[in-house]
Design a protein that fits this description.
Blueprint (H helix, E strand, L loop, with lengths): L1 H16 L4 H5 L3 E9 L4 E6 L4 E5 L2 E6 L1 E3 L2 E2 L1 E7 L6 E6 L1 E2 L5 H22 L3 E2 L3 E5 L22 H4 L7
Parallel strand pairs: 1-11
Antiparallel strand pairs: 1-4, 2-3, 2-7, 5-6, 7-8, 9-10
Amino acid sequence: MRLKTQFKAAITATLLMGLCGCASIVSHSKWPVTFNSNPTGAEITVTDYVGNQQKGTTPLKLTLKSGKGFFSAAYYDIEAKMDGYSTAKVRLQADLNGWYWGNFALGGPYGMLFFGLWVDPATGAMWKLPPQYTVNLSKTTADNSEHRKQMISIDSIPKELLSKIVAIK
């Protein structure tokens, strides 16, 4: 009778384990990420892999998905702007979640075969995003106002300079 109860308990535990992968149990598939800039106060745009955008001023905390599909890590294009600084464009890519390997460590080949190949990749929990991400901005070195094109009337050009004008084609 005791063996029958232990067998039922083992079957129940196996079935319950089959509902979630290791990374799905101890981790998650959406991560809070705080975006910072150096210097702080930059206007930031976060664009996901399908073109959805979220905007704000640093520091900015967003919750982002770590997976974009079966066995595919999510990525985000980050653009940071601030007056007096060059626009920074970088990409944030989700990395493999260390808990993903718990499928093999805790479940052996069966754990990796079932959980590692189905549950965690399907939920996106096999990937993780960093808790913080900093974008460094570089000060602009030249005053762009001197490089702007300006339209003027030919009548406003001094006569001594008219002979030096070259047509641009």
